[in-house]
Fold:
Amino acid sequence: MRNPLKILVAEDDSGDALLLERAFAKAMIRGPVYFVGDGEQVVDYLQGNRPFDNPVQHPLPDILLLDLRMPRMDGFAVLEWLRTQPRLRHIRVVVFSASDRREDMELAASLGAKGYLVKPHRPEQLAGMVKTLEDDWLRIGETEHEQTGSRSQAAFSAG
Structure:
């Protein structure tokens, strides 16, 4: 059995964060889910800066679920920063945004996002969406593992 996925969620809206937390529980996601509230906290988390400096309590994630519109540092800036961080290339970034604008989707993809999910209008759709996220990652990860023996190089595509 594979290790559970570690997921970092960057979401500034506390209501959306709570809905996501419930959706992860309802979808029975096995791995730990960590939450931060803006792009600067994403960078601090991934660099191991305070208050995220304990790697046992704040391990590097397998997946970063990234909102685009956040205060202090938006999701596009996080994607640009991640491109300059070779040691973090194994993290699969999936944008999770209210924006369904094609321009946002294309820009996110050009900056390295491996998937783009539009936030559903109905909260009950979230559980299915996050379960699909996990299932796709595991399926693609297993295929990659069979081909090269390394899950960290698997390409991820949501939806």
In short: The first helix runs from residue 14 to 26.
